[in-house]
Specification:
The complex is a heterodimer of chains A (306) and B (94). Chain A contains six helices and 16 strands. With 306 residues, chain A is an alpha+beta fold. Chain A folds into two domains: 141 residues, no CATH class; 148 residues, Phosphoenolpyruvate Carboxykinase, domain 3, CATH 3.90.228. Classes of the chains: A alpha+beta (306), B alpha+beta (94).
Chain lengths: 306, 94
C-alpha cells in the first residue's frame, strides 16, 4: 500500500510544505526532552486542552528548540477507519530532508530546512478539541521527539523507566515482555515509574541520563514536572526462570535499536541511530532479566552488580 | 535458494547495515526493521561478504584465525552463509 493510502482519501494531496490555515493564534511551549517545543497555530480551545493534557510541562514564552505548527484540514481528507482489533501504526515516508507522517485524522511533516538551526514540524488535522485533538497532537509529538532526540545524539526508547534513590533503570522488551508488569511491581516497593511506554536517553559526559517523557501507557505521570536521573543499567526483559545474565555491548545495542520507534524504520538515519546508540550502550551495564510473578523487582534491580 | 557452495560469491544485501562491537556484530535490516546480533565468526563472515571473494575465500581467510578443524570450519561457514542468505542478510551475486 502506498504512503498515506490507509489514512487519507487522496494521498497525492499531502501538503508539500508547512503551510495552510491556522486554527488560531494561540500557542503552548512544552518542556519535553529535546525541547522546549513550541506548538502554535492553535485555537483557544486547543490551547486549553493541551494545557490540561500536559499540565506542569507547559510554560509560556521563552526560546523553543523545536516547533510544531498546527493547521486545519477538512474531515473529508481522512478515511474512516474501523479500529476494532486493529493495531495503530503511523505511516511514515522518510527522505533525506524530512519525514512525512500519515495517521488517523493527521498529516504531519518534519523538515530540516537547509541552514536552519532547528527541526520544524507541521501538523494538519480536522480535530478541533478534546481527547481526539490531544491524541493527534501527542502522536505527532512522539515522532517529533524521536527525531529531535536523535538530532541531539540521544534517543527515544520504547521502554519502562524506573527510578529511585537517585538512579534509573531502563527496562526493554517488545510488547508483552512484561514492562508494565515490572513497572507495577516496582511501584509496589516504592520506586517511581517515569513511563511504562517511552523514555528518553541522553548522553551526559561519560554517562547516560534517562529523561521522563509525557508519553505513557498505563503507568507514569503524563503531565508532571520534568524528571531526569542518571541511568544505572539497561535491562532486557525475557520470560523464563528467574535469571540475571549480563548482555554483551552488541546485545545491548541491538536491544536499543530495536526499541527506538520511528527512527529505526528510517533508512536515511540508520547510521545516525547507530552512532547515537552505540556510545549509550557502551556507557552503562546491560543485563537480561527474567523474574517470577510477584517478584520484589525493585529490590532485585537495586542489587544488580555495578 | 540453491545450496551454498565454496564457489559462491555472496554480498551483503543493500538494506543491511552493521557495526562491529567487541568482536560481535549488530546487524540492522532496514527493510524489516529487524536487528540481529552475530557472534565473532558471523561478524567476520559479514566483513568478508564484499561481493568479490567467494565463500571458499572466506574459509581460507578464517582458517588462519581459528584453530578449528578445517573440514568442520568449512561446513560451519557454508551452513552459516546459507542461514544469512535465508535471513536476507546476504545475497548471491547475479
Amino acid at each position: 500500500m502506498s504512503f498515506g493510502a490507509q489514512f487519507l482519501r487522496v494521498p497525492d494531496l499531502f501538503p508539500g510544505r508547512p503551510a495552510g490555515e491556522d486554527w488560531g493564534d494561540r500557542a503552548v511551549t512544552l518542556s519535553i526532552a529535546g525541547g522546549p517545543c513550541l506548538v502554535s497555530g492553535l485555537s483557544a480551545v486547543q490551547e486549553r486542552d493541551l494545557r490540561e493534557r500536559f499540565g506542569g510541562l507547559c510554560r509560556d514564552g521563552g526560546e523553543a528548540a523545536v516547533s510544531l505548527r498546527v493547521f486545519r484540514a477538512p474531515a473529508g481528507d481522512f478515511r474512516e477507519i474501523d479500529t476494532r482489533g486493529w493495531e495503530y501504526t503511523l505511516d511514515l515516508d522518510p527522505s533525506p530532508g524530512g519525514l512525512r507522517v500519515a495517521g488517523m485524522r493527521l498529516m504531519a511533516r518534519l523538515d530540516w530546512p537547509a541552514g536552519a538551526s532547528r527541526l520544524a514540524g507541521a501538523l494538519w488535522t480536522c480535530e478541533a478539541a478534546g481527547e481526539e485533538w490531544t491524541s493527534v497532537c501527542e502522536n505527532t509529538l512522539r515522532v517529533l521527539t524521536a527525531y529531535r532526540l536523535l538530532e541531539l545524539g540521544g534517543a527515544m526508547i520504547h521502554s519502562a523507566g524506573i527510578s529511585g534513590e537517585g538512579e534509573g533503570y531502563l527496562l526493554l522488551g517488545p510488547s508483552g515482555a512484561g514492562k508494565t508488569t515490572a513497572s507495577r511491581l516496582c511501584l509496589e516497593e516504592g520506586a517511581t515509574v517515569l513511563s511504562d511506554d517511552l523514555n528518553a536517553l541522553v548522553r551526559e559526559g561519560d554517562g547516560v541520563r534517562m529523561v521522563k517523557l509525557p508519553f505513557t501507557g498505563d503507568l507514569g505521570d503524563r503531565a508532571g514536572a520534568p524528571a531526569t536521573v542518571p541511568l544505572r543499567a539497561l535491562l532486557r526483559l525475557a520470560k523464563g526462570p528467574e535469571r540475571l545474565r549480563p548482555l554483551s555491548r552488541a546485545e545491548a545495542l541491538a536491544g536499543l535499536v530495536a526499541a527506538a520507534p520511528f527512527v529505526n524504520r528510517d533508512p536515511w538515519r540508520r547510521e545516525a541511530l547507530l552512532d547515537a546508540l552505540q556510545p549509550l550502550a557502551a556507557a552503562v551495564p546491560a543485563w537480561e532479566l527474567t523474574f517470577p510473578r510477584g517478584a520484589r523487582l525493585w529490590s532485585i534491580l537495586k542489587a544488580i552488580p555495578r | 535458494m540453491n545450496a551454498i557452495t565454496p564457489a559462491a560469491v555472496l554480498r551483503r544485501c543493500p538494506d543491511v547495515r552493521y557495526r562491529r562491537i567487541e568482536g560481535e556484530a549488530v546487524v540492522l535490516r532496514q527493510s524489516t526493521a529487524e536487528v540481529l546480533v552475530l557472534n565473532e565468526v558471523g561478524a567476520s563472515v559479514l566483513d568478508l561478504a564484499d561481493g568479490e571473494r567467494s565463500v571458499g575465500d572466506w574459509i581460507e581467510a578464517l582458517a588462519g584465525e581459528y584453530a578449528a578443524d578445517r573440514e568442520t570450519l568449512a561446513r560451519d561457514i557454508l551452513d552459516f552463509a546459507a542461514e544469512l542468505a535465508e535471513a536476507g542478510v546476504l545475497e548471491p551475486l547475479e
